[in-house]
Amino acid sequence: MTAKAKSKIVTVGLVQMRCRPRLGENLKKAVGRIREAAARGAQVVCLQELFRSQYFCQSEDVAMFKLAETIPGPTTAALSGVAREEGVAIVVPLFEKRAEGLYHNSAVVIDADGRIAGQYRKMHVPDDPLYYEKFYFTPGDMGFPSHSTRFAKISVLVCWDQWFPEGARLAALSGAELLFYPTAIGWLPGEKEETNRTQHEAWETVQRAHAVANGLYVAAVNRVGCEGGLTFWGQSFVADPMGRILARASSDKEEVLVVPCDLSRIGETRRHWPFLRDRRIDAYDGLTRRLLEETPHRK
Predict the structure, then answer these.
(1) CATH code, domain with 25
(2) Active-site residue flag, 159
(3) Is residue 29 flagged as an active site residue?
C-alpha cells in the first residue's frame, strides 16, 4: 500500500463579470476583483476572454481594431503592478496588436513578481454567427505551452480551444498542472431552452473530460450579461483531475470563485489512471492529417 502524497494546495481565483462599453471601467472592475480574490486567498487569478471590452466579434467592423494593444503594453503594465502588490499570478486575456495588420486573441501569464512569465495566442479561431473571430484574429503560432509561476505550472487556452482534445493533451504533455480556459460564450437569440441547456452541458462536459483524460485541474471562466445578440451563460467552474466540479458560478451574476486545488492529486490520479503511460504514440500519425480516407482493398 503506497503512502498518500503530501498535499500541495494552490488556490485558484476566477473572475466572472459583466463588461461595459468603456474600457477603463472594465479594467478598474477587473483590478478590484483580482484584489478581492487575493484577499480571499487566491494565488493564481484568471480573467475572462477579451475582458477589456464587450465582445466585439459579433460583427465585422474595422473600427474595432483600435481596441487592440501591444504585449507588453498598458494593460500588462497595470496588472503587473497589481500582481506584485498582491503577490498573485494573473492570467490576462488580451486583443493583441502584434504588428500593423496582424492581430491575435491572446493571453499573458504574469507571475507574482510582476514579470511576464509567458504568452499564448489562440490556436482555434471560430467563424460562426455572432462569433466572427476570423475577421479579427490570426491563428496562434506558439503551440500549447505551459508556463512556470511561483505557485504552479499552468497552461492557458482560449474559448474555442475548449472543444479540441489535442490542445489539452499537448498542454498536459508540456507539464501543465492547471489548465485555464478564459471564455466568452453565450446563447444565441431565439433558441429553445432545451437547446440552450444542451449547449451548456456539452461545453462543460468536454472540459471535464479534458481534466479526466489528462489528470489535471481545468478552470473555465466565462462572462455574464447580455451584449448585442448574445446572452453569456457564465457558470465558470473548476474541475479536479477526476472531472468533479469543485465550484461553479451562477449563470447570470458577477462572481469571484476562489477554489483550493491540491496538486498532489495529479500524481495520485495519474498513477491509478495511467492514460499517459498507455498512449500509443506509435499509432497516432493520422492525427496530423485532415481526414483519413478509406484505403482501397488490395486483391
Answers:
(1) 3.60.110.10
(2) yes
(3) no
Cell readout for 245 is: 466540479
The continuous run of DSSP H or E covering 221 comes out as strand 217-221
How many Å apart are CA 35 and CA 128, to the nearest integer? 35
Which residue range(s) make up the domain with 280?
9-288
Q: Is 198 left (phi over 0), alpha (psi -120 to 50) or beta?
A: alpha
Q: Are 181 and 157 in contact (CB under 8 A)?
A: yes
pLDDT digits (tens, 9 = 90+) for 119-163: 999 999 999 999 999 999 999 999 999 999 999 999 999 999 999
CA distance from start to end of the chain: 55
C-alpha cell, 64:
474595432
Report H helices in 58-101: 74-86
Which member of 46, 49, 97, 261 is catalytic? Answer: 49
Give catalytic status of residue 46 as yes or no.
no
In a domain, 284, yes or no: yes
In a domain, 3, yes or no: no
- The DSSP result for 261-277, as a single string, is EETHHHHHHHHHS-TTT
Number of domains in the chain: 1
